[in-house]
Amino acid sequence: MELSVVVVTLNDRERLCRCLDALAARLPRNVEIVVVNGPSSDGTTGTVRERPEVDVLVEIAERSHGVARNAGIEHASGGTIAFVGDSYRIADSWHGAVRAAVDAGAEIVTGPGAGASGDDRSVDGRRVTPFAGPNVAFDRRTLESLDGFDEYLSVDDAADCAHRAAALGHTVTWSPEMAVRPVREADGGRPMADLDGPADRYRELAYRLGKNYGPRPHVLARPLGSAIRDGVANARAVLGGEQKPTGWFADGRRVAVATVLGLRDGLRARYADRSPRRNPDGLSARRDRAVRVYDQR
Predict the structure, then answer these.
(1) How confident is the model at residue 228 (pLDDT cuts 50, 70, 90)?
(2) Is the pTM of this model over 0.85?
(3) Which positions ≥6 away from 87 have C-beta within 8 Å?
(4) Same domain for 140 and 234?
(5) CA angle 137, 40, 109 (to 5 degrees)
């Protein structure tokens, strides 16, 4: 197994260093480590360039998990490509678990510690096994069939990838030994990408559902149901004096508009790529992600 580990980061140098410490201590030296750095301003570039275990540093200009992961795929050379979050440490058993799963023919393998549970869910008759972006490994041929990650999505790219993998018939292997643990120390860093409030969250949810499942009743029902639940909770806050009515109304309007926009964009993407991979903004869509590459291989 030729393994590349991709770590994406943004302004989180201290936790990244602890992540890299664990990778250096628990991986064989022949495992390739690729760090994709967003537009950090905390000295991450200089620090990573001094780390002997890092084989490739890719600098990008965008705060997006999808862009960062696709940039990592472009510059990784392994037949198996794993993604580890910069705020996680891999367990001692992590590498052995990935190797065992890949040797057994796994297409995608994931494990505990980054939010995944290994439980399947049914969506429109499709069995989907969710996986977390900070702890997942792919056979390269599987990533190529998916065309990487959807760059429209700021943070939901891994969730979207799981639905598309299910549509293509790829299986996800759950390995309890492929564990990661959060790095507790932090220097106030921010996530590689974040959503600006509930409106963006609903936009990404509606986009994913519209793109992967089309204009069906449950596509509207799921974000609508979530919006109603959040609206009721916020209404209680208004009644309790914790939120102003004008703010509650404005938030509701933003959520409604964002949901409609997300659904519109998702349906456009669905018809832009009518193949089962449903990824018009994927890995093959562009080649200008990297601003600069430091390659020590």
Answers:
(1) low
(2) yes
(3) 12, 15, 19, 134, 182, 183, 186, 189
(4) no
(5) 5
